[in-house]
Amino acid sequence: MTEINHQILLVSRPEGEVEAANFKLVETPLAPLQDGEVRVRNHFLSLDPYMRGRMNESKSYASPQPLNEVMIGATVGRVVESKNTRYQVGDKVAGFFGWQEFGTSDGSALRKLDDTHIPLSAYLGVVGMPGVTAWYGLNRIIVPKAGETLAVSAASGAVGGVVGQLAKAKGCRVIGIAGGADKCRYVVEELGFDACIDYKQDNLHDDLKAAAPKGVDGYFENVGGPVLDAMLARMNAFGRIALCGMIAGYNGQPMPLKSPQLLLVSRLKLEGFIVSEHMEVWPEALAELGGLVAQKRLKYRESVAEGLASAPEAFMGLLKGRNFGKQIVKLV
Amino acid sequence: MTEINHQILLVSRPEGEVEAANFKLVETPLAPLQDGEVRVRNHFLSLDPYMRGRMNESKSYASPQPLNEVMIGATVGRVVESKNTRYQVGDKVAGFFGWQEFGTSDGSALRKLDDTHIPLSAYLGVVGMPGVTAWYGLNRIIVPKAGETLAVSAASGAVGGVVGQLAKAKGCRVIGIAGGADKCRYVVEELGFDACIDYKQDNLHDDLKAAAPKGVDGYFENVGGPVLDAMLARMNAFGRIALCGMIAGYNGQPMPLKSPQLLLVSRLKLEGFIVSEHMEVWPEALAELGGLVAQKRLKYRESVAEGLASAPEAFMGLLKGRNFGKQIVKLV
């Protein structure tokens, strides 16, 4: 019996917003395993904002997702067949198999995972790329000091939630920005932020002034657009901005920065970064994050879409902020 | 006989462009010197873009220039009377006496100058604040490596000319941006830049592509506006931008940055700075710059306005780029 693999391909590039028609769900028979290969049943697929950039053909920091190929993405799963001595059936592994149910690998890009104290799906979030992203921007760019005020946008998201909790542990006053009362309540009551601003209330400038009366010393940016405009006006002298994402402009609409002169007036330092270019920090960051999760000192939330076929819709929701916490797709 | 001091006061704040009516030339009798005081006849007054910011009431990095007081500014001159044992008549000194012919001081904010090998006026330019500004932005923010491409705007100006020459000495390919064919010719032929783009030709994007075929690794920004937009699009991954001035917006007109997402896409590092906040580098920088000037290995050019009364006109010209090199006013 040949097993069937379900896969989702990118079949056209979005013009503006992503549409369901950009994707195609296909069935592909699994080829027999070759010597040295490992077959993984993916349990969870990670959906992340960076994927939107890869869907474009235009210049970005990475080569575009090719058309008519399986959409890229990080996955975690279980080895179901192995002709590779380093992997046994039953091993839990992280891979980068993309939007599909099964992955086949020569074993080189896999990483074994221990899910005794850390749920498998967390390796796609707080103990994975989003967590390390938070760790890097905070510890290598912002470098917050106790007593400083730190702000983070998309605060209830996979990255933002970690940024704020790590900063709280360092003795900062932490302000979140999120979309909607539910997310803001979660950010303050569950994650322990000092305040959270609902950007949908359209009162960013005054809300920020109230939440950060002494100004903002460090800002972790995930969204760009009007939020960044408002934040720049509130930054203290010598503030640091870690530029991690600008999801507000991912569909290609113009997103000018209103008052770039504030970067000079307040002598700010701003740095754009991509965590995959800083692999040297991953071991340290993952060890710290994994420890915190295992000790339940780092909280997180997941939005779980059920089944591969739900991935396009979930991804479109993520780009519109409809997710609540780390967006994943449960494949088994 | 009581000597008369001529002074220029700021009597109103500009709305938009600076006008002659914002200033007033007055005659003030010099008070007799008190014990411990020094009287300096100012020989040269420095005019610098930062003064425009001080003329506004709005938030900037420094307190505004008070109305009906002598306009601030750096000066160099000669001690003409002294009741302070640390200064003798004939000593050459740098001070911050502002737009006036004589300065009186308790000696605390003066610095003795040696004009044997370095012309007195150079202490207002290449061997003064503008020179150290160039040195700091280049060596502490951009940190260029041999073989990299560096660009600098206002390239024929007091700061830009030093930036480019120091970068050339470090083995960089250096691109200037300046206004007009004369300035560009000077930048290439006299200062030794590899290329210079005339932004008045309105072809920044293509000209920059031609001048920097491998992209730009370091950018020293003095102007902002469309030049910064064009430069961002040409920056290489991991490029560094020293944000020193944004003269294009000093009259308060909106000056949005078109595509801030390029800061993320190209993982740029941008830092705004004010050299007076980094006094720790001044001794090292001034020693290096003074040595280069004395050895005639660092070239510069001055625009000299004659007499105190010419200062307002010269300052308005500076803000419009009518100066060619460091703008000073000769007072004696």
Automatic annotation (TrEMBL), chains A, B:
<keyword id="KW-0560">Oxidoreductase</keyword>
<dbReference type="Pfam" id="PF16884">
    <property type="entry name" value="ADH_N_2"/>
</dbReference>
<dbReference type="Pfam" id="PF00107">
    <property type="entry name" value="ADH_zinc_N"/>
</dbReference>
<dbReference type="InterPro" id="IPR020843">
    <property type="entry name" value="ER"/>
</dbReference>
<dbReference type="InterPro" id="IPR045010">
    <property type="entry name" value="MDR_fam"/>
</dbReference>
<dbReference type="InterPro" id="IPR041694">
    <property type="entry name" value="ADH_N_2"/>
</dbReference>
<protein>
    <submittedName>
        <fullName>NADPH-dependent curcumin reductase</fullName>
        <ecNumber>1.3.1.-</ecNumber>
    </submittedName>
</protein>
<dbReference type="InterPro" id="IPR036291">
    <property type="entry name" value="NAD(P)-bd_dom_sf"/>
</dbReference>
<feature type="domain" description="Enoyl reductase (ER)">
    <location>
        <begin position="16"/>
        <end position="329"/>
    </location>
</feature>
<dbReference type="InterPro" id="IPR013149">
    <property type="entry name" value="ADH-like_C"/>
</dbReference>
<dbReference type="InterPro" id="IPR011032">
    <property type="entry name" value="GroES-like_sf"/>
</dbReference>
<dbReference type="GO" id="GO:0016628">
    <property type="term" value="F:oxidoreductase activity, acting on the CH-CH group of donors, NAD or NADP as acceptor"/>
</dbReference>
